[in-house]
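SAMPLE LOG
Freezer: B-3
Tube label: C17
Construct: single chain, 193 aa
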Amino acid sequence: MSDLPVEPTQPGAAEPRDLESLLDELVSIVDKAKSMPLSSSAIIARDEVLGLLETARAALPAELQRARRVLQDRDEVLQRAERDGAELIDEARAQAAHLVQRTEVVRQARHHAERIVEDAQAEGRKIRHEADDYVDRKLAAFEIVLDRTMRTVQAGRERLTVVPEEDEDAFDAPSGGLDGGRAEEGFFDQDRT
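STRUCTURE (predicted):
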């Protein structure tokens, strides 16, 4: 049999042991077991190994449950990470769409503003041309009226400067003139200098 002391390892033992420590203990028993002479077989204490295997079998469901819980927790963490990642992606897409929309709104607003400025400039040029045409028409009409007035004034002055000879004799007479004998002073007072 074995030199190692046999621990009481009953399935209902007071202190639960984990599967890894039980397997380590089994490996240690097999490793320290004495060899049979002229053989590679080892001599081990059957009760001791069977007791450890029973304890390991009893611990196995608890270890499997723990492993299942770890896997379930891992799956839940992965699902939560996927949900969070999907939410972040959705949020990023929404922000990108908002920025694109805002950029589009800004671009459209700029384009609209440029169109308004161009329309205002064109309207200003049109009003300026219309005003220039209006003023030109008024000045042309005024020029025509002024030209007529100038011709009328000039014709009137010419009539005043050309005095018929028969009228001059009337002015030369001392008592027959309109101005009472002052014909040499001129026909109108404004002709005096």
